[in-house]
């Protein structure tokens, strides 16, 4: 909640109730459907209430639609009434809440039934089609918009400016690496008109600080194993604990308890090895990958993490990242698909 300036009327009212001088904060206000052409970012880590914010917009719309035609004049532009809300969810996220109804706007702890006003899409072209087929809808909630292609940002901006539509984006802006999620997220920041930052409690059992970051880890033999920095960027995780190396778990952590081993290794060792390989000398990269796969104690990664964390009880957990399988494969994926340092031909040679 945000602190607001104390008006004299508010101060006098609170004093009449017997309150001393206090700081006044906004609670969660009802959604303003009268303002047009808004592009609203609702940002925060998982568990901060981004989708629950969307559910409040949905519930407010049901109340607002019961108002008179006089109100409709205030909330309508280009025949689109902003009191009518449509919810968009990514196809990547479709199986996140398998026990909920197909038309559910689902969040932790509950859901709203949206009927025909919900759809799952894969890209900006499908969004454009749905916009064209629902010209009377004035407010669009696009969940996890960072999952989509960059074009979506321009589709949204044009529809917002030309038709007065409002778009709400409950989304992650930072990935598990604490970097801007992708170019789509960066464009959303550049074109937003409003930002609502949300926080959550750090989910470390010994902490109750505000958390801004999404943390990725694996559960191996009952141990928390932080994901390495070069873990694949987008791996969809559900809300149930996953065991083993195939699927990660996610939670929200404060800066102190957000472990991210291997970042320096990625830039000091892995990327330079990829650059050397792309220049024609593949042996150094090949040797490191072999060590990561067959004898990790002989790898540069092991020495890097061991030197930095073995004597520090607070950060020794970073060594658990070496217990996760497929480290060499993930290193190759990072160099090939994210950094474009390895050609497809070289990738196949190294895999063999």
Quick rundown:
The chain has 352 residues and is an alpha/beta fold. It has eleven helices and 14 strands.
Q: Ends: how far apart?
A: 55 Å
Number of E-state strands: 14
CATH superfamily of the largest domain: P-loop containing nucleotide triphosphate hydrolases
Percent strand: 15-25%
Q: Remind me, CATH topology of the largest domain?
A: Rossmann fold
Please tell me the CATH architecture of the largest domain by its name: 3-Layer(aba) Sandwich
Instruction: Name the structural class.
Output: alpha/beta
Please, how many helices?
A: 11
Task: Specify Rg, calculated over alpha carbons.
Answer: 24 Å
Cα shape? globular
Largest beta-sheet details: 7 strands, mixed
Name of the top-level CATH class of the largest domain: Alpha Beta
Uncertain ranges = 1-5
Can you give the mean pLDDT?
88
- Work out the count of structural domains: 4
Helix content: 25-40%
What order do the SSEs take from the amino end to the carboxyl end, as H and E? HEHHEEEEEHEHEHEEEEEEHHHHH
């Amino acid at each position: 909640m945000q602190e607001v300036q104390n008006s004299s009327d508010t101060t006098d009212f609170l004093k009449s109730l017997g309150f001393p001088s206090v700081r006044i904060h906004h609670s969660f206000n009802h959604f303003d459907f009268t303002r047009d052409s808004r592009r609203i970012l609702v940002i925060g880590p998982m568990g901060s209430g981004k989708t629950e914010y969307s559910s409040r917009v949905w519930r407010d719309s049901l109340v607002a639609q019961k108002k008179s035609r006089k109100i409709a004049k205030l909330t309508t532009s280009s025949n689109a009434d902003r009191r009518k809300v449509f919810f968009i969810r990514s196809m990547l996220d479709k199986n996140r809440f398998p026990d909920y109804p197909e038309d559910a706007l689902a969040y932790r702890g509950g859901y709203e039934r949206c009927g025909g006003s919900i759809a799952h899409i894969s890209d900006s072209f499908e969004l454009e089609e749905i916009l064209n087929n629902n010209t009377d809808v004035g407010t669009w909630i696009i969940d996890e918009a960072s999952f989509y292609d960059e074009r979506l940002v321009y589709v949204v901006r044009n529809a917002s400016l030309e038709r007065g539509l409002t778009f709400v984006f409950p989304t992650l802006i930072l990935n598990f690496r604490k970097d801007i999620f992708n170019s789509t997220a960066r464009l959303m920041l550049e074109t937003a008109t409003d930002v609502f930052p949300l926080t959550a409690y750090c989910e470390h059992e010994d902490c109750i600080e505000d958390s801004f970051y999404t943390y990725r880890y694996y559960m191996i033999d009952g141990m928390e194993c932080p994901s390495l920095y070069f873990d694949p960027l987008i791996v969809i995780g559900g809300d149930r604990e996953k065991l083993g190396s195939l699927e990660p778990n996610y939670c929200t952590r404060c800066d102190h308890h957000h472990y991210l081993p291997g970042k320096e290794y990625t830039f000091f060792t892995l990327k330079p090895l990829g650059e050397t390989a792309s220049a024609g000398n593949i042996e150094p990269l090949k040797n490191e990958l072999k060590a990561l796969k067959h004898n990790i104690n002989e790898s540069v990664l092991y020495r890097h993490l061991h030197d930095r964390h073995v004597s520090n009880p607070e950060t020794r957990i970073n060594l658990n990242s070496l217990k996760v399988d497929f480290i060499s494969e993930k290193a190759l994926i990072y160099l090939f698909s994210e950094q474009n340092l390895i050609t497809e031909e070289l990738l196949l040679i190294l895999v063999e």
